[in-house]
Amino acid sequence: MPQHHTLLIVGGGAAGVSVANSMLRQNSGIDIGLIEPSEKHYYQPGFTIIGGGAYTLKETTRNEADLINPKVNWIKDYAESFQPEQNSVTLRSGETVTYDYLVVCPGLQLDWDKIKGLKETLGKNQVSSNYSPDTVEYTWECIQSLQGGVALFTQPTMPIKCAGAPQKIMYLAADRFRKKGILDKFTIEFCNAGPAMFGIPFFAKALEKVVADYGIKKAFNHNLVAIDGPGKTATFETTDSAGNKQLVDKKFDYIHVTPPQSAPDFIKKSPLANAAGWVDVNENTLRHNKYPNIFGLGDATSTPNAKTAAAVRKQVPVVVDNILHLMKNKPAEDKYDGYGSCPLTTSLSTVMLAEFSYAGKVTPSFPLLDPRKNRWIWWWGKTTGFPWLYWHLMIKGYRIDIPHLECYAKKFIKED
After folding, report:
1. Cα angle: 77, vertex 79, 84; to 5 degrees
2. Do 153 and 190 touch, CB atoms closer than 8 A?
3. Angle ∠(348,354,356) on CA atoms, nearest 5
4. Cα-based distances in Å from 244 to 152, 190, 222, 240, 390
C-alpha cells in the first residue's frame, strides 16, 4: 500500500519547509508529508557575503531535521515522477505516495554542464562560484589572494536565483580591493548575457553609478559558453544589435561564474510543466493551471517574478490559505502580486534594497526613503536582520508582514 497524506510537499527548501510549518500553524491536525533527500538546509541569500568574506558557510547552514515540524512525515527520498490523474508521486526508490493536495517547490537546477570545461576547473585555477555550498568558500579564498589583474564576473540568461547576485559579489570584491589600496591594479569586467545592469530600469540607472565609481567595465550580450581554467581563458557568445552571434575569448586572472539555471529535469519531463519546463501555475493564486489540487511556489514555477527568498515569503501564505479555502469548498484567491526583493550589496557596508512586483513595479516597504540609495541599515539587514527573520520566523511558519512604516521611517533610519 502506498503511503497517503492529505498534503504532500515536494521540496524541503525555503518554500517547502515554510509551507509545512505554516500549514500546521493554521491547522495543527493536518496530515503532511514532505519529500526532501537533503540532510542540510542552506540560507542561500547568505552565499554572496560568504564569497565576500563577511559571513561563514556554517552561519548559513542548519540541519533539515531541526527545521521541520516533528508532526510532518519527512520522506528522505527524491521525487522521480508525477501521476496527477492518480494523485500520486513516484519516488526514486520506486515507492509511491498519494495525496489529496500537492505542493511542488523543488527549487532550481544548476546547469554547470552548459558551460564547456566549467566542471573540470571549478574550485581551482581561480575559477569560483557562489551558487553552490561546495564552491562558495573558494570565492573568498580567491579574492583574498588576488593582488591585481583581470577579474571577470559573469551572468547567464535569465531566469536565475536572485538576478542581482552575479554583480553583488563583484561590488564586494571591488570594495575589498579598494580597502587594500589595490583597486587600480585590477581590470574588473561584468560580462552579462543580458542587455543591461538590471532588469528594472529604475534600479539599473542607480547601479550604473556604482559601476562607474569602481571603474568596472561592462560587456552586455556576452554569454559564457566555455572556460579553460589552466589557460585562464573564458569564451563568450556575443550578440550584436542585428542579432549576429560570434565567439569572443577573454583572458582572466580570476573569474566568478554564475551557472545557467533551469527547473529540475524531473519537473521538465513531468505533466506539471509548461512548454518551457516550469511548474505551470496561475501567477496570482499559485494554483496549477490544469490540476486544481496542485500548487507550486518558489523558483521552479512559471510565475514571472524574481526568484528570491523574499518572493517565497509572500507566496507561502497564499498557497496555505488557498489550500485551506479548497478544503472548505471556497474559491482560491488572487493574492500574490509578484513581490520580490533583491538586497544589492554595493559595498562591504551598504546595500541598495530593490523591491518590486510583476511588470517591474517598484514596491518599497519604506516609500519615504529613496530605494535607489545605498544604505548601511540594509547592510545590517542583509547580514543580521534578514537571516534572523528567515530562521526564526519564516521557516518556522510565522507570517511576516512588513507594513509601510512611512511615519516611522525617518525617525529610525537616518538619511546617510
Report:
1. 145
2. yes
3. 165
4. 23, 21, 12, 5, 45
Cα end-to-end span (Å), the chain? 63
Residue found under cell 544604505:
375
Quick check: 108 and 262 in contact, CB under 8 A?
Answer: yes
Please report the domains of the chain, with CATH numbers, ordered by start residue. Answer: 3-109+262-327 (3.50.50.60), 110-261 (3.50.50.60), 340-412 (no CATH)
Dump pLDDT digits (tens) for 75-96.
999 999 999 999 999 999 999 9
Q: Does residue 415 carry a pLDDT above 60? A: no
Sign of the dihedral defined by the CA atoms of residues 167, 286, 39, 118, in that order: negative
Q: Are the beta carbons of 50 and 24 closer than 8 angstroms?
A: no
Sign of CA dihedral 366, 367, 370, 371: positive
User: What average pLDDT does this structure show over 340-355?
Assistant: 95
What is the C-alpha separation between 53 and 49, in angstroms, rounded? 6
Report yes or no: 199 and 163 within 8 Å, Cβ to Cβ. Answer: yes
Q: Which residues are catalytic?
A: 162, 342
- How much is the pLDDT for 402? 57
Alpha-carbon distance 356 to 206, whole Å? 15
C-alpha cell read off for 229: 581554467
